[in-house]
Amino acid sequence: MSIPNIPDVVAAIGALGLASFALVDASKLGRKGGVSNSGFSFIERAVQQLLPKERRSPTSAGPSELRTVVDILHANWINGSPLGDQKAIAKSLIKLRLSSDTAIALAEATRADPQVLSKVAEKMTSGDALDSKETNVLGRFDLALTAILDEGYQRADQRYRNSARVFASVVAIVLALLGGWAVSGYDAAHYFWTADMWIAGLCGLLATPLAPISKDLTSALAAGVKLAQTLKK
User: Fold this and answer.
1) Residue 99 near residue 125 (C-beta atoms within 8 A)
2) Of the chain's two ends, which shows fewer C-beta atoms within 10 Å, N or C?
3) Whole-prediction pTM value?
4) Is the torsion defined by CA of 47, 50, 56, 60 positive or negative?
């Protein structure tokens, strides 16, 4: 392969990676969001940690409060809303459930004083002013709540990104193998397990990590080739 063809090869591999990501992204049409659903279990676990007495499956005719909260967060997750906005929504939904009945469970999850947090919940409901001790407990509760939700969302985001890359890599390799077979002009017996097949598979393997940087890398390679040609002259 000649040097001037390298930028074209990099651009083609990057395009293959983008196509693979697009096909994987199309799985969002699934009932539960396809690949977008990956990682949401960490968020649901964080919410259940904060609301341990609620059950995910309702026993009555209507949905439980936990199910309502989880469904709202799931809708935002599979829709791809900004992570900061999702955390803020989750935090607001949990704090809205702070009452004298839920204060003990929330205090256990956030290691706050349950008696003081119960008084805080009562005063927030009645609109009475908080004293310094109650304000301090509320602040600690807010920080702990933020930390728990942040951990859940960060782990969920990592799982989603890794899952998307893995699925996109598989799709890219399959597309590369089929594409290499199509342009080779050989039948299956003369293509598979040959050098051409392994080269196509390598291109598919490189497609996923190369896709986000293919544009910059292509420009850099093109500039390098031009510099090499200038020096030769």
Assistant:
1) yes
2) C
3) 0.72
4) negative
Which of the residues in the chain have pLDDT under 50? 1-4, 55-63, 211-219
Structure tokens at 152: 């859940």
For helices 132-184 and 83-96, what crossing angle results, to 10°?
Answer: 140
Question: At CA 34, angle to CA 39 and CA 75, rounded to 5?
Answer: 70
Geometric angle at alpha carbon 98, from 97 and 100, rounded to 5°: 120
d(CA 79, CA 73): 10
Confirm if 149 and 48 have CB atoms less than 8 A apart. Answer: no
Q: Which helix (H) or strand (E) holds 196?
A: helix 195-210
Structure tokens at 185: 């002009």
How far apart (Å, rounded) are the C-alpha atoms in residues 35 and 30?
A: 9
Rounded to whole angstroms, the maximal C-alpha distance in the chain is 84
Looking at residue 64, its pLDDT comes to: 67
The CA-based dihedral angle spanning residues 13, 16, 17, 21, taken in that order and rounded to the nearest 10 degrees: 180
Q: Are 91 and 146 in contact (CB under 8 A)?
A: yes
Domain ranges of the chain: 3-232
Which of these, 160, 181, 183, 175, lies nearest to 205 by C-alpha position?
175
